[in-house]
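Table 4 source record.
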Amino acid sequence: MSKASSKKKESSSSRVASSQGQASAKDVSSGVGSASEGPAEAKGGLFPVWPEWSEAEVNAEKWDGSRGPKDAKTGKSPCPQFFEDPEGKIELPQSLSIHSWRRPVEFIQEKAPIMVENELTFDLLSANKHLLCSELVRWIISEIYILWKVFNGTTSKDKQVSPEAGSQTWRPWEHIYSLCKAAKGHVPLYNPYGKYVVRLFWMGCWRKITVDDFLPFDEGNNLLLPATTVRAELWPALLTKAIIKLANTEVGQQQGRELGDFSVMHALTGWIPEHVPLQARYLDKVWDFLKETAPRFQQAHSSEERLSSCSSAEEWSSRPVEGKNESSAASKCPEKAKGYAELQMPQMVICASYQPLHLLEKTSLLGQMSDASEKLRHYGLFQLYSHPVLVTRTRAGPLVVPPGPPPVPRWKLVRPRKERVTTDEQKEIPSEKHDQFIEVSSPFVNYGPIVVPTSPELDQRLASLTEHEGAESQGLAGRGVGAIRPLDPGPAGEVTKDNKKNEEKSSSGERATESCSTVPGSQEVWIHLDHFTTCFQTLLVFHKPNIYSNHYRKSYFKSSIAPTSAVTNSAAPPKQQASLTTPGPTQVGDEKSCHFLFVDSLMPTDVLVSFSSLVHWGGAPDEPSSSAGKDSCSPRLGLLVARPFSWKSLKSQLPVLHIQTASTKAAVLSLPPGHHVVCFSSWAPLAYHIHLCSMTPFVCGNEEVVMPHLSKDSLRFIDQAMVILNALGRVVNVFSEKNELPSAMKELDSAHIPPWLDTGGARWEHFKVFNMAVFHMVTAMLERRLTAEEVFAVQALLTDPYIGTDAQEHISPPRVEVPQQWKDREPTEKEVWATRVLQAGWKGLHVRKIIRARKPGTVENSRASKTLQEIWSLVESGAQKHALFLLRYIFSHGERSAVLYPCYEDVESRIFFRDYSVMLPSQPSNTWFLIFREVLFVSNEMLLVPKVYSPIPACILHVIDNDTGEELPRVFERVEPHIYKPNQKGYTFLAEAQSGDTPISGGKWTLRLIGSCDPPSSFSRDTPVCNFATKEFKGYYIPDNKNIICRFSVKVTEDHMATIQIQTSKQDAYVKLVVLDHEVEVASSSGKGFVIIPVFWFLLDEQPEALGPRMEGQSDRTVTQKGVQLTESPQETAEEVTSSLVSTTTDQLTTGPLSHKYIIQAEVLHKSWPLDESHAAFIQTLRDLEKNEIKAEKQEDPATPTGTDKQGSEGRNSAAVKSTRKAKEKEKEKEKEKPAAKPTSKLEMQGLDTSRPHWTLRFVSDQSDTDSAEVKKDTERADEIRAMKQAWEAAEPGRSVKAMQARLQFISKHLDKARAEGTQGSPDVPLSPLSGEVAQVEPPQSIIHIPMDFTPFIRRRLEELRLKDDSIAEEQKRAKAEQIQSFRLIRDTILEHRKQEEKSRKALMKKQLEIYEEMQVLLDEQRKKILQLRERHRSQVQEPEHRRKELKVDKEVPRPAEPPRAKPVAAEPAKAPKSSGKKK
């Protein structure tokens, strides 16, 4: 810039400043008069998030602190009259070292400080050379220049900026507010108090950021924030200070950089930055994208056109510097003046960036970095000056149109020569491929070197590099783009040529070009496309949100940094608004932090996904301490992952979008046409914001918002159905027109035949399904049976004479009276043959009628056309409904062809759901309980996915097939999708839960059944029951030989469904819970410390007379064994069973009483519940207590004689049997009448000590069925022994006393024998078994002989005696023979099977031997060939040696004594093969 121009600038700027000061005096006074400062928060601690922007708050802002006494009391600043930022001083990058902080009045002495002095232009390079070593400062300066050029420059050849272009202009100082109102085009004023408000975009909305005017300086008294050439202007420093505040929330200095993904343009405009990595392999796609979005360069065809469109080569040039130059430019460029009023902003702003050079990175990248540095120097950019550049234009050709061919003289046109063609082949015209260039704009083009402060480790390594770049850059300083020496005759050569032509322009042309100059410091350069990906690593595409019609915004802030609420809702455009609240911190993969996107479109959809994350904030507890430094331990980055999602599957698909950032980053999610659901999982340490934009309507939110839209038909499905129906309607309309009918039929075939359908059987099958679909659609539309005429018309339309003949119910048959002679008589063969001939003739006649009906102009055609028109008029009234019915029929009946339709995927993703909710009752802490238990009946085969929404985390859902007793598999405590088939007893859905350390106050629990049909099946009860009765039993674990924990017997008065659960005090003990029926395992479950049998049906005992009505009525009886239920059909009898064992069992089930004896038993597996020594004494005490209780019960039982009559031995035996039965029956009646008469155990009275090994058994049933089941401890064995003793005593009174006396006599006898052998002691004193003390017992007077009862060992007799005659003997013999015969048949079958296996083994062995012999023969042949070749090669190698030896022998002079020695020498060659043969 010349001195004259700088003087003009100063004068004009001073005039503007003075005028501004006079005009704004009222605003200053009014602003100060109403100012008052609020309380400031302590520095260094947590401060609230910057509030959202509100113009009302800014207009009511108090700019003066004279009325705020609180600041003076705190003593934060030595000067109470100055405002001090409560957040503290900003943190600058490490490349800028701060020495002191000053106010503007302390370093601006020559004139009063001012916010804006020159509103037409600014220069941020000349006065900030000492700051360009900072990457953050360079990015701030570059992006301010880019925004100025985008808003205040030209966007096309005919559309340029005007100072009066109101809303489209942008001024950087308009983001600052001080002593002014919030209005468009305002100018901030200098505030002596030092308080300023800056409006910046952050975390999804515009924020109000308050800063003070404390400015940092280094040791050389240089300002460390950008400034203009006017030292008194403060707007660059204050704006940069606020921007650095935002940049400090990002992860600091990662990978040697001062900023990561932070974007200054995003903070200043709110545009969404999309980061696109540049790679050489995608060069063509990059060029296509830039060619579509960026303006194209247009060549000027003559010098006059180039002069008139002086700025056509610079479509993105900035506005003029001064008003005088503006008027001259408008006069000299009339086209420019016309476009001032019409300024259209580009839809996207594209920038390119490159990273700084880091020598500490991988050595493999040094070559790539050196190439990039060389290419950048070639175009006037430098690797050390890393910054973003603006992509302005593209061109695919030279800058100047090449000169045309010279004119041909007229005399040559009189008789032109014909071109001679030497060959008859067609000559290919070579296509000229023009070079492709991209124009970029940057303020640092051809700028001087930068001294970057580095660590001592890199000083030596950077010295040579800096000197080398500095030497080259000094030679390039001050030159234009065309002065750069090109590396190849590509873009640089063209630019040089253009500059040479520009030098030859007249002075007026130069002045015109100067008047259309760009912003000071911003220059353009053309870069070859091949070098573009080498120079730059990232393409920054800034999207303007206001151009998108559909938006979704979601914000979440952690409670530790949010002032009031943790959620910020952002307003969306009127077309779509959506906002949700998140109850707590989000985590990746957790559904609480998931957002679902639903898109349904006929065209490909692009969704712009923007993700902002907050990872660094003051002294937040979730991040490491700032005292350790940013480089030592950086917080984790925020993460957003997008995956295709389906509620019908538990499989997690691969992500289609992955964004990881500490600031703001965006990416485009491209979806093909159709029905799509995408799940977004987000995570951030402190806060995040998601913004979705698209031109296609979409729905985004949680499951409650998205799932109702999935039950509708997709747009592709509706479109396909309407295309088919419209094509069918066109055929109906032109059915009687001969010329248009063939084309209409072709259109119908192309509409309903799916692509890629094979010709042949599949195509014929599809036509059959389509014809049936049309017929059923017409029938469903009319809601009645079709008449014969209507059926004929449909058959003619579809050319199918058999359509509708199978469904006889649609055709009303004529009433024909059968002659009397034909009744009850079978036809003869001739009559059958004659009938077939008549049917064949009738079918042929019918087919010929249909063929004639397809020919326009015939009577049949006109009649069918009229009928079709009548039918189609009704179809058109509900066209979409009938079209959907038609296509759904094709999809349901033609699966082979339905898969080939493009909309088939949309049908598969369609879902239906139904919710079932219950209210949770209050539960204490550490309690297990049931929430839900219902039986689901399925009418048709369908896919169902159950999903639970529970306020209790520890909630598990079980699904049991009641027919088989098997539980459906679960994946990560979730029931996997399963195809539910119709069964007899349905499927039981059971939900269990366990409360934690805190009690549950209640809540709402919901089960959602997601299916593929409408509607999903329902439960057996309309209102689910959530109240259950739980019988709880507790006890100590007393180990025994069988490791049984407990045994309980269950008796039911009706069929009873129950849930059984056991829990042990040892969490890692393996426990098996079993249900036994007559000591046979019918259901079992194993677990570790916690075992549950979700559902088990306890069946009632059935009598023989009650068996028939029950099997005919409600349900079949089921016999369960080892967890598998075997259902007996009512029609199954003993005669249908061939096996003797099964027949016997069936006879017992059908003739005898069906009784059940259920026992619940829990046992320890693998000895996994050992007890230590501290528990051994306690267990022994428990055992002693049980023994004492048993003994006490024995003593309490009285001996009640029932009779004194003495009978014979047989009489006594029979009486004993009868009395035993009566005693048992009486005992059972007493137990039923007086269940509480049993004495309570001492263990139960003392209570349960939870520190000892114990267990808890729960038996859960419905509240209404509690009384139908009785569960008590299993004491059957002890009861049987007690009843047996009582029966003996009743049959023979005094038997117990006699047994005692016999026992004592036996003991005294053995004691006498022992005493006689040499022992001396006291006289005979037998021991009492009850008291354990010595008792004196008198010897008995006489020994009573009691005969032995052999009744149990005698075969039982029938109630009615039968004489075994010949018939009975023959019957038994025949049954025995049948058993033997069946055994022989089984034996013969097994032997035959063994013979067949033996034959097959022999055949296999024979085949293997043959294969081995063949392999051996082939191996011998190959070995023989190899040996022959080996011998041949050996002979060829040894032949020269033999010849040499022979020649040597011939040359030697033979001696008389040596002739005999010549024989061995000559014989040596002949021996060699023999030795080799031996080796071989």
